[in-house]
Amino acid sequence: MEANLVLPYRSFSTASIRNRHKMNTYKYKKIPYPLCSILTKLPANNQNHNAETTTTSCSKNVYKDNWFDRLAINHLSQSIQATTGLRNNKSGYEGLAEAATMVYSNFNSRRQVNIVVDALQRAFPMPILSLMKMVLPQSKWAREYCAAFTTVFFAWLVGPCEVKESEFKGRKENTVVHIKKCRFLEETNCVGMCTNLCKMPSQLFIKDTLGMPVNMVPNFDDMSCEMIFGQDPPQPDTDPAFVQPCYKLCKLSNKHQRDCNSQVKRKDEEIS
């Protein structure tokens, strides 16, 4: 197995949410830059198997969004654009992916997470979320409710998903949402956008607004993902998602060049 490119990848660790009305920022402690590599040559004894996997991963799902899906997609897209001030003329999921791409291309890692969390707060009525937080204390029922709610109301964002059984403190609970093939990851085809614009902001937003810890575990081989409600995510410096190489056919391959990452690193250090 050979890799022809070794890359620094920016990530971050423990986050503490400050009073939004005072500072409107989320502060992250720094961690070192892990190394990533891009696979260029498959092992001889595994070429056929991997070729099939690659073909499967590259075949995009076709989504038939209904009126609710289109409304939700455009609403979130407009919320992100309003937060950044960067507009695009695309509609539907393409417009949402373009809005996310502009965030990833124009801001450093910490700002990316801040922007998406702020956009989520714009998109969802805070009084309703605050009420849900009050009536959903930590319990088996609350964890299972959050899992079921996600599969019903957020398939437009992540694609088809289902609730799976898991073990919580020695008991069986239906608290894991299995996303068969993440629509956002499939559309953006970028590991960095998955971790910075989906995984980290979603974990923070759900914990802050609902008081419910959730650990998102993406599988970058088949683009599936699991959302484990009731489980605190690991620190990014020990989270396998933050040491994954990006896809060789990443649409934002220029973001993974040495000079580009150096620029991002300098911007991070300037505001630290």
UniProtKB/TrEMBL annotation:
Domain (Beta-carotene isomerase D27-like C-terminal): residue spans on this chain: 156-236
Keyword tRNA processing appears in the UniProt entry: no
Keyword annotations from UniProtKB, A to Z: Isomerase
GO biological process: strigolactone biosynthetic process
Family annotation (InterPro entries): D27-like, D27-like_C
Classification via Pfam families: D27-like_C (PF13225)
One Gene Ontology term, aspect cellular component: plastid
Domain of life: Eukaryota
Signal sequence segment: none
Keyword Amino-acid biosynthesis: no
Example GO molecular function: iron ion binding
Protein name: Beta-carotene isomerase D27, chloroplastic isoform X1
Annotated organism of origin: Nicotiana sylvestris
Taxonomy of the source species: Eukaryota, Viridiplantae, Streptophyta, Embryophyta, Tracheophyta
Protein encoded by which gene: LOC104217305
